Amino acid sequence: MLFYLILRFWFALALRVYAYVRAWMPTSHLVRWVKTDRGIKWGLPIGAALTPLYYIAMTWSGGHLNVDNSGWWWVPTLWGAMNTIKFAHVAIRSPFVWVRRTLRQPAARQFGAYPRWPGHSPMVPNARVSVESVDAQQ
Fold it and tell me: What mean pLDDT, rounded, does the chain reach?
């Protein structure tokens, strides 16, 4: 029972920290934008540009951990490591997602996931629904 309470506490704490980081870190806003349809094509260039920069920041601040004996250099080191992993993931994943979305979009339009015009019925391809036929069904 005690193990369950400890596990539950750490899990709840991790979720709250994750929600805080997701809401307030500017890089998280950029990653969320890259996951949209408009931003997915920018995933590879953004990831390729920012991954080395955050890696350099991480290694530079990590070098001060052993030299200066300061207890605060772990904060930028952890920040750099987290963002390096985040943007490397964006750079690797976004081309695959972009290709998948590009290939699925015409099929989704063909089968009615997107309305072609007002009054278009998504159930029957190339069928128009008039207001009178909807009123007659009710």
Answer: 81
